[in-house]
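Support reply, case 0932

Customer input (verbatim):
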Amino acid sequence: MTVEDTDLSNTITYIRQVEADVDGRLSRITPKTSWLSFSSGQPPTAEILHYQVMSAECTLLTAVMQLLRDSLVEKVKGVINIRSAWQKYKALLDSKAALEASGGHLDVDSSAGLRFGIGTFISSPAKGAGSRLVLGVSV
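Our regenerated output:
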């Protein structure tokens, strides 16, 4: 299967537009701190996590599109975005746990998006192995 480079470029542009919209909405509802740090000690709301899951999904999709491109530079950008997506999903797991510990719940769509993103990076354990590998790290 081949994909035209212009189609990949158009898709990346569209994903970046969606990500900019999501980040804009997120900036209006998020306290003025870093992406996932909450200095007040309060866990993030389900709405904030919903938008953060969408942002992580956009980063992951952009990375996949970049890896499919013919340019070596785009492939390097794709690898960097894969790492960025993993870091976002990893932080989201911690935030989801904090939300649930405080009695909140993540909506079904956001929870499914988070499981999909984490599932992208988890390899199933070998038969009889006691741990899973995430990007080559035992968890």
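We compared this against your earlier run and they match. Two observations from our side: The two ends are 35 Å apart (CA to CA). The chain is about 65% helix and 5% strand. Please reopen the case if you see a mismatch on your end.
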